[in-house]
């Protein structure tokens, strides 16, 4: 009997020790978990890798943002527009204010077309925590002195666009990150869709006409994002095929002459502005464009422009491959309703219902 009682006592002791160990471990894990959460919630900064590959320290919670050019549109589609305290002049006109009226009330730290020229005094007065853009060494030094985090950009390829979307999403926080992930999936799917359908088709020779209609003849070179869209849509950018990357830049138009056009005769011409399109298509004039096969065949198209021009480094470029494919290979994309795609885009990413007049203004811009 004593032996039995002794065994029971030993067993009880072992079970008690095991239970205490489990409880202690659980409490320890809970304590560690709580400690980690407290550390995260009390941390004042975090680190972000910008478009140039540089690691930048930013505030843990970002509530004040400045953005150049198309970055305003990216901030908008990721739900962070109310955090903008400094913007770019280029987005304060056109369709952007219809989608987001407050943009006209925000100080324009970037003036002029495209990404814009930075007015440092306006930016410093707005006192952002973070600014998206490109910066000279002097500008970087002034921003550092003002304790403003600056995130550099690289926007030459679709992969660069997705990386930028991801970067902006991370700056905005958890909701922005989730929106960025969903947008990148949509962006990828559009490119894959047109690439798959055109991979076996004959490639269409394309020339992108930019610059001023009567001035110097400029186009998109091999480093330009639009070249990637053209290739995905079953086309060949004749400038990219014949101009080296070293002599081209994605930020400014690549200069060519009419001899180049005569020699390489494009099948399709894409005009990036209404003035350029009208000048090319003016049959009453004796301009050199009239001698090109694409013009004679009426294969000249005006590139759409909504909140931002589709053919440049913006998130609205997600629509560019669809529009290009529809025009370069109409037989392959007979079922593609580009109007419906644009309406869905605006509804899903801007929460804006386009009217038929809105749609016409986007697909056939007046400027």
Summarize the structure.
The protein is 46% helix and 14% strand. It has 367 residues and is α/β, with parallel strands linked by helices.
Structural class comes to: alpha/beta
Order of helices and strands: HEEEHEHEEHEHEHHEEHEHEHEHHEHHH
What is the number of independent domains? 2
- Low-pLDDT stretches: 22-41
CATH-defined topology of the largest domain:
Rossmann fold
Tell me the number of strands: 14
Distance between the termini: 102 Å
CATH superfamily of the largest domain: Nitrogenase molybdenum iron protein domain
Instruction: Please describe the biggest sheet, giving its number of strands, its sense, and whether it closes into a barrel.
Output: 6 strands, mixed
CATH architecture of the largest domain: 3-Layer(aba) Sandwich
The best one-word shape is globular
Gyration radius from CA atoms, angstroms: 27 Å
CATH class of the largest domain: Alpha Beta
Lateral arrangement of strands in the main beta sheet? 6-5-4-3-7-8
- Number of helix segments? 15
Overall pLDDT score: 87
The fraction of residues in strands falls at 5-15%
Helix content: 40-55%
């Amino acid at each position: 009997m004593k032996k039995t009682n002794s065994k029971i006592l030993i067993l009880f002791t072992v079970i008690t020790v095991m239970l205490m160990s489990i409880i202690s471990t659980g409490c320890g894990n809970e304590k560690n978990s709580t400690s980690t959460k407290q550390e995260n919630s009390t941390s004042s900064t975090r680190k972000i890798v910008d478009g140039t590959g540089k690691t930048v320290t930013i505030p843990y919670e970002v509530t004040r943002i400045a953005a150049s050019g198309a970055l305003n549109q990216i901030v908008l589609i990721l739900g962070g527009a109310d955090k903008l305290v400094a913007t770019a002049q280029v987005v304060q006109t056109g369709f952007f204010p219809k989608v987001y009226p407050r943009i006209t009330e925000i100080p324009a730290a970037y003036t002029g077309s495209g990404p814009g020229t930075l007015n440092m005094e306006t930016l410093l007065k707005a006192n952002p925590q973070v600014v998206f853009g490109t910066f000279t060494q002097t500008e970087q030094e002034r921003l550092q002195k003002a304790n403003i985090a600056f995130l550099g950009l690289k926007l030459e390829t679709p992969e660069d666009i997705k990386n930028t979307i991801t970067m902006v999403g991370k700056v905005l926080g958890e909701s922005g990150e989730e929106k960025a992930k969903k947008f990148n999936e949509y962006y990828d799917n559009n490119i894959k869709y047109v690439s798959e359908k055109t991979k076996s088709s004959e490639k269409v020779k394309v020339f992108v006409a930019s610059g001023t209609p009567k001035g110097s003849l400029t186009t998109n070179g091999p480093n330009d994002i639009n070249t990637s869209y053209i290739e995905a849509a079953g086309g060949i950018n004749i400038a990219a095929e014949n101009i080296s990357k070293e002599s081209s830049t994605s930020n400014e138009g690549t200069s060519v002459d009419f001899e180049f056009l005569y020699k390489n005769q494009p099948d399709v011409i894409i005009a990036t502005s209404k003035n350029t399109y009208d000048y090319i298509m003016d049959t009453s004039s004796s301009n050199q464009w009239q001698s090109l096969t694409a013009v004679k065949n009426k294969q000249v198209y005006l590139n759409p422009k909504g909140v931002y021009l589709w053919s440049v480094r913006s998130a609205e470029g997600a629509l560019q491959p669809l529009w290009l494919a529809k025009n370069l290979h109409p037989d392959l994309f007979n079922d593609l309703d580009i109007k419906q795609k644009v309406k869905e885009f605006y509804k899903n990413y801007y929460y804006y219902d386009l009217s038929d007049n809105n749609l016409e203004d986007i697909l056939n811009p007046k400027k």
